[in-house]
Every structure is written in C-alpha cells, then in structure tokens.
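User: quick one - fold this with heme C bound?
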Amino acid sequence: MMRKSILTLAAVILTTTAAHAAEKINMDTAKRQAAICTSCHFFNEAEGTKVGPNLYGVLGRKAGTKEGFMYSDAMKAQKFKWDKKRLDKWLTNPKAMVPGTKMSYPGTDKPEIRKNIIAWVESVTTPPKKSKK
Ligand code: HEC
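Assistant: Sure. Structure tokens for the protein plus heme C:
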C-alpha cells in the first residue's frame, strides 16, 4: 500500500516535470531578447555577412565554416557542429568555450534567456526541409 502511493507520487512528479519542460516559449519575448544578436548577425540566408557570420542553417553546421566570413583562428580550429546544447554553452560565455574568439558578446548567465534566444535562433535559421515542427 505504502509502496504504491510512493510510486503514484513519483509518477505525478515526473509528469509535472515533463509538462514544465514542454512549456511554451513566448516568441515575442524571445525575439526581443535576441535583438542584440541581430546587431552583429544576419539570420536570413539572403542577407549575407555582418559583423559576425550569417547564421542561417547554423544548427548542424560545423563551427567556423560559413563561407564569406573571416573567422578567428580559434573558431576555425573547432571541430564540433552546432547543436542546441553547444549554443547554450556558447551563449553562457563565448570566450570560455572558444578562447580567442572574436565574438565580443559576453554571454548571459540567465538560462531562461538563453533558452528563449536559442528557440528563436532555431525558428529563424532552420531551413524548411529540416524543420522538426
Ligand atoms: C558584437 C557583435 C556580436 C554579437 C552581439 C553577437 N555575435 Fe555571434 N559572432 C560574432 C562574431 C565576430 C563571430 C565570429 C567569432 C570568431 O570567428 O571567433 C560570431 C560567431 C557566432 C557563432 C558561431 C558561428 C559559426 O559559424 O561557427 C554563433 C552561433 C553566434 N555568433 C551566435 C550569436 C548569438 C545567438 C548572439 C546573440 C545572443 C550573438 N552571436 C551575438 C559577433 C557577435
């Protein structure tokens, strides 16, 4: 009896956590929080290079490989492909993740803001065919 109620409790906690994780992101807020990125990056394929590389299709792309942009040696030396986890680490502290990078955005220690920015980046840079939505 006791055991069963503990299991039920565990199930309730798990369900609540899952619901929390699936919480909807407010894209208007996210877009506002990502405005700082747009001062240095274009996110639309046609717009080309700004202060930083064009970020269209960045998820799944190898770091430091967007044509037409002069990356730092530090970024060119990276061997990974961008995914959401790496973006999160990057936006926490770019210079800690890639020492010597020339991206001067300092990062944010607020996980909620990073989550929103990453969701917005994904929504505007993912080519239609690869979209999971
Ligand atoms: C002050 C200008 C500036 C701001 C603001 C800025 N970036 Fe950057 N970003 C750069 C530069 C410059 C690079 C190239 C870094 C290098 O070569 O070391 C870069 C590189 C990147 C890369 C790696 C791209 C690749 O092809 O490997 C990502 C991803 C990125 N920025 C995302 C963002 C996001 C998201 C934001 C907003 C939170 C942001 N950046 C804000 C200038 C900026």
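One thing worth noting: Helices lie at 2-21, 27-33, 35-38, 73-76, 84-92, 94-97, 111-125.
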